[in-house]
Each structure stands twice: as structure tokens, then as C-alpha cells.
TrEMBL record:
<dbReference type="InterPro" id="IPR014721">
    <property type="entry name" value="Ribsml_uS5_D2-typ_fold_subgr"/>
</dbReference>
<dbReference type="InterPro" id="IPR025158">
    <property type="entry name" value="Mg_chelat-rel_C"/>
</dbReference>
<dbReference type="InterPro" id="IPR001208">
    <property type="entry name" value="MCM_dom"/>
</dbReference>
<dbReference type="InterPro" id="IPR004482">
    <property type="entry name" value="Mg_chelat-rel"/>
</dbReference>
<dbReference type="InterPro" id="IPR003593">
    <property type="entry name" value="AAA+_ATPase"/>
</dbReference>
<dbReference type="InterPro" id="IPR027417">
    <property type="entry name" value="P-loop_NTPase"/>
</dbReference>
<feature type="domain" description="AAA+ ATPase">
    <location>
        <begin position="227"/>
        <end position="411"/>
    </location>
</feature>
<dbReference type="InterPro" id="IPR020568">
    <property type="entry name" value="Ribosomal_Su5_D2-typ_SF"/>
</dbReference>
<dbReference type="Pfam" id="PF13335">
    <property type="entry name" value="Mg_chelatase_C"/>
</dbReference>
<dbReference type="Pfam" id="PF13541">
    <property type="entry name" value="ChlI"/>
</dbReference>
<dbReference type="InterPro" id="IPR045006">
    <property type="entry name" value="CHLI-like"/>
</dbReference>
<dbReference type="Pfam" id="PF01078">
    <property type="entry name" value="Mg_chelatase"/>
</dbReference>
<keyword id="KW-0067">ATP-binding</keyword>
<comment type="similarity">
    <text>Belongs to the Mg-chelatase subunits D/I family. ComM subfamily.</text>
</comment>
<feature type="region of interest" description="Disordered">
    <location>
        <begin position="171"/>
        <end position="207"/>
    </location>
</feature>
<keyword id="KW-0547">Nucleotide-binding</keyword>
<dbReference type="InterPro" id="IPR000523">
    <property type="entry name" value="Mg_chelatse_chII-like_cat_dom"/>
</dbReference>
Amino acid sequence: MSAAAVMGRTLAVALTGMHGHLVEVEADIGQTLPGFVLLGLPDQSLQESRDRIKAAARNSGLPLTRRHLTVNLVPAALHKRGPGFDLGIVMAAYAADRQVHGVHGPVFLAELGLDGRLRHAPGILPSVMAAVESGYPDVVVAEESADEASLVPGARVRGFRSLHEVIRAFGGDPEPPLASAVPEPAPASDGEDRTTSVSLSGGHEPDLSEVAGQFEARFALEVAAAGGHHVLLEGSPGAGKTMLAERLPGILPPLDDQTALEATAVRSLTGRPQEAARLIRRAPFQAPHHSASMAALVGGGSGIARPGAASLAHGGVLFLDEAPEFDRRVLDALRQPLESGAITLHRASGAVRYPSRFQLVLAANPCPCGWGGGRGSKCRCTSLQRRRYTAKLSGPLLDRVDIQVTVPAVDAAALTSGAGGEDSATVRGRILPAVERQAARLRPFGLSRNAHIPAAVLREGPLAIEPRARAGADAALDRAELTARGHARVMRLAWTMADLRDADRPEAEDVDAALYLRRRSQGEGDA
């Protein structure tokens, strides 16, 4: 028998962050002493698959060959990680032994249990995306991964509960498996929308009508939602900063198809299939504690860096409560994604890139004790303590925050009147037409939100604001009250103001309102 006659080939996917590489799994059965060799730069978890695969095959009614089995993962120079290659390896081994056929075409993505059950492997969604983009739309996954894999347009998904079922589906004739290897039927879905797990927890949906007073901060939140702008809320404890931030996702527009697929793919990498079984349409909300590390916020870890809260907030809101209490280096690490909408993490084993187009909401007290706002009669902080506290939010970071407003303490009349402001549905009703207007205007530039317009586009061309209208911002730039970046952000805010009032172009009043919202927390513009 020739060597070519005992070769089996299947396809799998190796992930580097969210980027997938198609991998050909080659299996060869030799005439030497029995053994199982795995080649192609596998990591430790993949090396362990040898014993796992042998046990799964035996318990599924079709043991692997007793001759020498060599499995090679091509390209050999690419690092392979994780248990998602298990199914591809065992099917290639069966093909080499002529036990199955038709396996070189589908992409196999599943982990094996010792009893032969197919288990969910992390990263199914980006793996299927890579397979479809490479021209291989047929994928075989565990039954619990089928819903997630089916989210990819063009994918033809087959889900199985056990290796025994896969063998039979590809022409094999295994013996009946052990009783313990027969999976129990999956519980029926209760129909609950699982996308709520990526926003605010609990059954209650936060609504803007619950916020007492704070009409200026509410308006700032509306502008931020309409244009995709970042926000700083500064005020004394109990003023409502956290309440306002938690209600921002409720007035944001639904995620578009591409953003929804990217946001869901990030969650697929966490290995929790319940969070990636459906496309995320509602804007995610992430609120890490101020003790969060660099890896927790922007991503990291050993080996290939994992996504952090900034990537999990892609398409939604990243809320940093008590922002000055975060490590300054951690906060400054957000400067890259605030500009580019993505995070690139470099490690010795390679670089990965995760999408991170979020709206940043910072909440801060005016001083360490929190009572330095307003009259400041209760404040116990020295001037040095105040300077050190405010210096924790660096100038370059704040320069990237479009809206900076003071949230004053709520008075008794607003708190006890029982008459709340507009609810989230009413505010969202004004925001959605503004979002549609800017999307239509920015489509020729490949953009959708005002906050993402490049500064060069704002200086010349159809989006440049007339000198008469932007005179106030130009004067602030000449007085060094604005940086060049700050000037561009005021122009973006002015366009959002115009969109909210259904105007074709920003006027001087829009630029003045944008200046007011940007400079409020710095003590400017206070009447």
C-alpha cells in the first residue's frame, strides 16, 4: 500500500486573537512501532489532546489505529493553541485508516470529552468567520456551539452531540458507544434574551426618568449618545453620576450588523457560549472596578493576550466610576483605543488586535473627600491634595474626552417633587433620527458617527464649518484654551448639535454650545 493511500486530511482553524488562520490537519499511518506523534507547534493543551482523543475514540465505538499515527498541523510555523483541534485530528486519523470519507472540505471545530462527547471550544464565532472568509463555509461543531456558529452569514453549520454521531455522518460504522458516552438531550431553551448579560444585570431596565433633576447632565448625555462622544461627569457623591452613566446604553442606537458580529466574537473568545449564542444588538455596558489591572482593562495575560473590558465594551459604553482612583498608567493605556477604535497588544509570541470602539464615561469627585464642589464648605482637602487628585486624570486623556460637565448636588425640590424628566424612549426617539442623518452624511467617508470624523476632514471639504460659525472655537484655540485636538472635538460636537436640531450645517450657536459642554468641568463657562 502506498504512502498516499494512508493519508487523511481535514481542516481546522487556529486563532491569533480574533484573527483566524485555516489549518490543514494531516494524518499518516506508518508501519513502525505503535505511537501517536503530534507536530506543528502545538501548545501544552493541544499536546494533551493525544490521550484525550484516544479515549474519546475508544468510548465512541471506533478506536484509533494501533499502528504509528503521525499528525501534522499545517502551516507548521504557526502556533496552535487550545482544544478546538480535537475533532479535526480524530477525523483525519479515521480518514487515514479509511474508516470515514468526505472529511476534506468541512472545517471541524470542537473539543472532545473522554467519553466522546463534543464540547464547546472557545472562539467558535471568529473561527467560523475565518473559515467562511477562506472559502470553506461548511463547518462541524458541537451541538451547543451551533447557534453561535450560525451567526456568521454564509456558514453552513452541522452540530453534533457526540463523536459517534460524527463518525456515522461521514460514512463510518462504529460499534454502539458506551452508555455513559450517550449525551443527555439538551434542555429546552426558555426563550430568554441572553444579550442582556452584556449590559446591566438584573431584571430592571434603567430609565432616564428615574434621574431627579440634572437637566444639563441629561442634555450632555443625549448629545453624547447622538454623536458617539466620550463624557466626563464630575460632581460630589450622590449627585447621580453613576445613575446617568448606567442609563446611557438605553438611549444608544442598536448595533449595526458588523459591530454586532465583532462584539459577539469578542465574547466568543471568553469561552462562555451563553453570551455568544445570539448577536448582541443592545449596546454593551462594562464597568470595571477601580482596582482593575492593565490586563483586565485593555487586555493581556500570558501567551496570546486576551481581550479586556475595553474590547468587551466594543459598540457600547465603558464606564470608569471613581476614575481618579484607577492607576494612571491603566487610564493612559486607553488613549490608543480612544483614537483608533482598536487595541493592539504585543507579546513575544505575537501581536493581536481587538476591536475597541466604545464610548468612555468617566465619573470623578472634585477632590479626595468628594465635597469640594459647589460652596465646598464640607471639604477637608488641602490644595496639594486636590492637585494630586485631579492630576491622576492626565491632560492627554482628558483632551480626548469631548464632553466634560459638572453634575451638581440635587436639591430637595427636584428630589421630592416626584416629577422626573423625559424617559429613555422619548430621548432615544430624538437621537435615532440624528444618528440616521449623520450616517447618511458620513457614508462617503466610510464613517457613521460624528465622533469618528478625522480632524483633516473637519478642516477642509464639505464638513468644514464656516469661519463665521466657528469664530468662538478659533478664539479659544488662539488663547491656548483649546488644543488642536480639542478644537477638532468641538467641531464634531457642533455637528452633533446641528443633527439634533435637524439643521443642515452647524451655526455659531452650535459651536458655542459645544464649547460650553467641553469646558464646563474646567470651571469655564460657569455663570
